[in-house]
Design brief:
disordered N terminus; six-stranded antiparallel β-sheet; single chain; four-stranded antiparallel β-sheet; mainly beta; 2 helices; Neuraminidase
Length: 351
């Protein structure tokens, strides 16, 4: 595929100082023709560019290049499974799943990233700084125009996604401890979904097939140097209850959840030693569970819980894929699966 990208370059003024003795000024300019100054022989770039009123930088030239690969790209598959949308060098493209030439959707100096197809495949969400700062925008595949959904001037917008009905957009924004919001498809102020604790960072939203649950990457505190695993886990926000809980508890972290169209599967990234890979997981509906039953991985370390036969255990550290839990009566240690169904002890039962 062949395309062009524009860059703004700063022009550094070169100031030349000429010093003359007052007595020699007239002599110096005596033979200079002021009516016919020297012509500028610098070759001008005649290319035309996309311009945006709010962007302070102006393009000065363009470059052409050809490539068949890219890195640090975001991709999304159309609802019919026939087309892939992706970003490359700050522009959006589509390419057939079967392969072929890419078609550019956006161009210009604006930095456009993270495309996401609408449920009907007619629009694409993306993040762009074309307003002068990051915001959520929508590209209409039929009209070939863009609509701005948010209006901030000093926030980061890592990503955004649609609800299955196409009526709302879930997005994340912030500076260091980024939060999750929801806005109507035609734009507006947006409503924050999780506001506490204040140091909670939530990114990578993905909405379940029934629209009730929002899966996301979550961690406490912003990014830091020499970080120790785990960093992120996958969380799940219940739109009906307004509450959220952890879905994973992997030592190698769990991040960027992606859901299957039928809502039965989730895949997410994780680290193992020096490698990053994908983990495929069967999803169980996060419905109202009978008698307060939950998955063991949802409980904090040190929590007391009861299993079906009435025995009581305390949750311990994770040993590779299972949790070491000690029975309170015998102090014997057992290994439990993260998705083993348990019942947390109430405050009354702990006494």
């Amino acid at each position: 595929m062949r395309y062009c990208k524009q860059f703004a370059i700063g022009k550094l003024p070169i100031i030349v100082f000429s010093f003359f003795m007052f007595s020699d000024v007239n002599a110096h300019f005596k033979n200079f023709n002021f009516k016919h100054p020297l012509a500028d022989t610098t070759k001008k770039d005649s290319a035309k560019y996309e311009e945006y009123k709010s962007l302070p930088l102006k393009p000065a030239r363009k470059i052409n290049f050809t490539t068949n690969e890219g890195s640090w790209m975001s991709v999304d598959v159309s609802p019919d499974g026939q087309t892939i949308a992706f970003d490359l060098m700050g522009d959006l493209y589509t390419v057939p799943v079967s392969g072929g030439n890419a078609t550019r959707l956006t161009k210009g100096l604006a930095y456009d990233v993270h495309p996401r197809y609408s449920p009907d495949g007619k629009k694409i969400l993306f993040i762009s700084d074309r307003s002068g700062a990051d915001n959520v925008w929508c590209f209409d595949m039929e009209k070939k125009d863009t609509v701005q959904l948010t209006n901030d001037n000093n926030q980061y917008f890592p990503d955004a996604c649609w609800t299955p009905d196409g009526e709302y957009v879930v997005y994340t924004k912030g500076r260091r401890n980024i939060k999750m919001y929801m806005v109507y498809r035609k734009g507006g102020g947006g409503a924050q979904l999780i506001d506490s604790p204040s140091d909670l960072k939530t990114i990578d939203p993905a909405v379940s097939a029934d629209g009730r649950y929002i899966y996301f990457s979550v961690r406490n505190r912003a990014w830091n140097y020499n970080a120790i695993l785990p960093q992120y886990q996958v969380g799940c926000y219940d739109r009906e209850k307004g509450k959220w809980n952890y879905v994973t508890s992997r030592y190698g972290s769990a991040f960027t959840p992606v859901l299957s169209k039928d809502g039965k599967w989730m895949v997410y990234g994780s680290r193992f030693e020096d490698k990053t890979g994908l983990v495929l997981r069967i999803l169980r509906k996060y419905d109202e569970r009978k008698n307060g039953v939950c998955f063991l991985e949802e409980l904090p370390y040190g929590s007391l819980f009861k299993i079906k036969d009435g025995r009581i255990f305390q949750k311990g550290e994770k040993l590779r894929k299972r949790f070491k839990c000690s029975e309170t009566h015998t102090n014997l240690v057992y290994l439990f699966s993260p998705i083993y169904e348990v019942k947390p002890l109430t405050e009354v039962e702990k006494i």
